[in-house]
């Protein structure tokens, strides 16, 4: 009987292409057609209603009942005209994916399609099975979703989706979006205050975000024949293929046809949803790719990234492909991340991280740059925790991946400028002096973008006019790390305002006051700046000398959420209260435990049910062969040698799996969730995963290819 693997391989041989046709040759003809966007609102709402909605979006004002009624009615008409029958509140619970519950517009009682303003604005989903970290059991079982008008309503697969936040009856956030929105307010308030030192016209500052999304693509049949990919999202076994990424021939290479067809189609769907996808290319590992949209206001960009992952998965099905969003689907090959390109932009249209030709503006630029570096320095552990997950642990701090040290890269030019500022700390500036010249600020070239050296090994790099937080995991909801980043920058900026004011109250000129504070911050945050190879061993040593943390695993990294410093930070800026923080900490620990547990089980099951039986059959064949040779008086020592080797690995697999199961069983009785998570890390994962995998991968090399049950790496990566 053919194995599932062989069946899958022959299915792949028969695949045909699927080519999508775009609605028009011009993207501008269909960009955003499936969204109730600004143009659509203008068209279908009375001017007075439209004005109120825009106000709600821009100023966060409340939408009154009458307005909600009007919007609901217009949205319903628009949706029905596009063949939509159902609506849903679309939200982002702490599971990491999105949630929706569809309701029909059709009301059988009245025999009419209905959609009320109150339904648009608020819903009460039966949400008792979403993670809540104890919030709901202590308070009240209900949860509410509430319309977030700042993110456009959209149609996805014939359902009207209303972006919402998700909170408990008592107002605690149960989702990713609520703290993100609050962190936007925090950074806005703090940044506006600093901007006002330079330009009184600035009234609002918004973070913007462009998310580069990395992913792997494999054939659907091959995927289905790998229970570990199906269950855990990553391969727990698999010997490295002869050819991996060592030829460096995949990055930016020509995109394989089936994958290109897939990209083309998901891009069309994304564009219809108003997701401004713009870049596609091969990534470093074979089978790995990237998609990036143009940056947007951070709230929209977050929704769009969540939606994009959904769209990609749905469209992949149509192409008989499977998208792997896991951070490390394949050992020995590059992992996947989301590069979060982040900046702050004023309502006067200035990107605060864009250097300019004017020295005065560059002082403002340096202020925001230094504030961000200082924020990263002072809160590196929070940033590390914000990207911690079982999946990302394979990418950060594991044997082959970059270390889990948070540092920031600025490039040669800016490093020189900051060094000079620091060095010239004692320069006296007299009236009439050109302060900028004296301090070297005048030297910042207009377009750093072109001469910024790119450092691909930095977890948090300045890339010309924005920071790029690269250590974010590929399946993560970016709202988590972006909330953390907004809060820490808000905190440093507000501290900075206070410090500048203090200097000014001592009679210092405003500019001098700013520069003095910058100098101080530069010195204080110097340790977090690193320009070298972030993947090297020397860096781990150097970072340790500098006193930077290197928190290698999620349970270790998450401890920061229990510190007073973090509680004060989040409560001070009204982003999360203690209950919410505590809940999140629990949920993340729980999630980690479950992920490692699933992997551990999959390892056990595959080892016991697939690999050992196959290896024993092969072992029997070898025994027959050895006996036969002996009966003919031939030298059978090679065969006997192989039998011994196979037996050794079978034995190792079996005993280690048995002990791992035992260890799990003991750990599962632990009520202390933080200790349990650490146990899963050190006793289960570090204790057994490698040993078990080593034995299985050795057997893969020994057992005859034809009877091996699991699709091999070379097949997963190169056949499509
Ligand atoms: P790469 O980092 O691969 O060289 P780019 O620098 O061109 O690519 O852009 C990567 C992402 O950064 C894109 O999503 C782009 O829209 C986004 N981006 C560019 N400018 C900004 C900005 N000011 N704020 C946030 N994101 C930005
Ligand atoms: Mg990039």
TrEMBL record:
InterPro entries: Gln-synt_C (IPR040577), Gln_synt_N (IPR008147), Gln_synth/guanido_kin_cat_dom (IPR014746), Gln_synth_cat_dom (IPR008146), Gln_synth_gly_rich_site (IPR027303), GS_Type-3 (IPR052725), GSIII_N (IPR022147)
Pfam annotation, one family: Gln-synt_C
Domain GS catalytic: 176-611
Residue span, GS beta-grasp domain: 85-171
PROSITE patterns: GLNA_ATP (PS00181), GS_BETA_GRASP (PS51986), GS_CATALYTIC (PS51987)
Family: Belongs to the glutamine synthetase family.
Matching PANTHER family: GLUTAMINE SYNTHETASE, TYPE-3 GLUTAMINE SYNTHETASE
Protein's name in the database: Glutamine synthetase III
Organism: Algoriphagus sediminis
């Amino acid at each position: 009987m053919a194995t599932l693997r062989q069946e899958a391989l022959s299915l792949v041989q028969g695949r045909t292409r699927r080519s999508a046709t775009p609605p028009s040759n011009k993207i501008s003809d269909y960009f955003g057609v499936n969204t109730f966007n600004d143009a659509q609102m203008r068209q279908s709402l009375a001017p007075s209603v439209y004005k109120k909605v825009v106000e709600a979006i821009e100023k966060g004002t409340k939408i009154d009942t009458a307005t909600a009624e009007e919007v609901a009615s217009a949205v319903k008409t628009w949706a029905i005209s596009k063949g939509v029958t159902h609506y849903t509140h679309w939200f982002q619970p702490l599971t990491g994916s999105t949630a929706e519950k569809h309701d029909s517009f059709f009301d059988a009682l009245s025999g009419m399609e209905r959609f009320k303003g109150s339904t648009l604005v608020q819903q009460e989903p039966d949400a008792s099975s979403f993670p809540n970290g104890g919030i709901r059991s202590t308070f009240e079982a209900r949860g509410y979703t509430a319309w977030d008008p700042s993110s456009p309503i959209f149609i996805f697969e014939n359902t009207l989706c209303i972006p919402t936040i998700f909170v408990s009856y008592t107002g605690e956030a149960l989702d990713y979006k609520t703290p993100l929105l609050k962190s936007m307010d925090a950074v806005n308030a703090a940044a506006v205050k600093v901007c006002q030192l330079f330009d009184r016209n600035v009234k609002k500052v918004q973070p913007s975000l462009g998310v580069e999304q990395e992913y792997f693509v494999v054939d659907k049949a091959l995927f289905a024949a790998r229970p570990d990919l199906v269950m855990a999202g990553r391969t727990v076994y698999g010997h490295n293929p002869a050819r991996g990424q060592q030829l460096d021939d995949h990055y930016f290479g020509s995109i394989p046809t089936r994958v290109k067809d897939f990209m083309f189609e998901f891009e069309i769907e994304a564009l219809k949803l108003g997701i401004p996808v713009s870049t596609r290319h091969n990534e470093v590992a074979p089978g790995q790719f990237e998609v990036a949209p143009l940056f947007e206001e951070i709230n929209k960009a977050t929704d769009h990234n969540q939606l994009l992952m959904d769209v990609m998965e749905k469209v992949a099905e149509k192409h008989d492909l499977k998208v792997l969003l896991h951070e490390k689907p394949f050992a020995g090959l590059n992992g996947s991340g989301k590069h979060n390109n982040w900046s702050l932009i004023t309502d006067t249209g200035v990107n605060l991280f864009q250097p300019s030709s004017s020295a005065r503006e560059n002082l403002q630029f340096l202020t925001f740059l230094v504030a961000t570096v200082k924020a990263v320095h002072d809160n590196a552990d929070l940033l590390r925790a914000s990207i911690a997950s079982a999946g990302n642990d394979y990418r950060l701090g594991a044997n082959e991946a970059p270390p889990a040290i948070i540092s920031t890269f600025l490039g040669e030019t800016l490093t020189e400028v900051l060094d000079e500022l620091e060095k010239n700390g004692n320069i006296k500036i007299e009236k009439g002096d050109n302060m900028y010249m004296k301090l070297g600020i005048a030297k910042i070239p207009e377009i750093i973008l072109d001469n910024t050296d790119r450092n691909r090994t930095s977890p948090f790099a300045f890339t010309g006019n924005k920071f790029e937080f690269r250590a974010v995991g590929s399946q993560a909801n970016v709202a988590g790390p972006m909330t953390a980043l907004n809060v820490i920058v808000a905190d440093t900026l507000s501290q900075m305002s206070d410090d500048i004011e203090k200097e000014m109250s001592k009679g210092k000129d405003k500019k001098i006051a700013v520069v003095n504070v910058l100098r101080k911050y530069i010195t204080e945050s110097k340790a977090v700046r690193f320009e070298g190879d972030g993947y090297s061993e020397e860096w781990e040593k150097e970072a340790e000398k500098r006193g930077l943390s290197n928190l290698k695993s999620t349970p270790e990294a998450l401890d920061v959420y229990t510190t007073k410093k973090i509680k004060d930070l989040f409560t001070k800026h009204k982003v999360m209260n203690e209950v919410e923080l505590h809940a999140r900490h629990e949920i993340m620990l729980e999630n980690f435990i479950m992920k490692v547990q699933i992997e551990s089980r999959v390892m056990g099951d595959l080892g016991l049910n697939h690999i050992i039986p196959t290896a024993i059959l092969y072992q029997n064949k070898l025994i027959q062969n050895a006996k036969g040779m002996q009966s003919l008086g031939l030298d059978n020592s090679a065969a006997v040698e192989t039998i011994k080797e196979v037996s050794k690995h079978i034995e190792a697999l079996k005993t280690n799996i048995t002990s791992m199961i035992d260890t799990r069983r003991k750990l599962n009785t632990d009520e202390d969730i933080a200790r349990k998570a650490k146990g899963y890390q050190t006793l289960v994962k570090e204790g057994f995963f490698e040993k078990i995998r080593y034995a299985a991968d050795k057997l893969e090399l020994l057992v005859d290819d034809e009877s091996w049950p699991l699709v091999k790496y070379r097949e997963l990566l190169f056949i499509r």
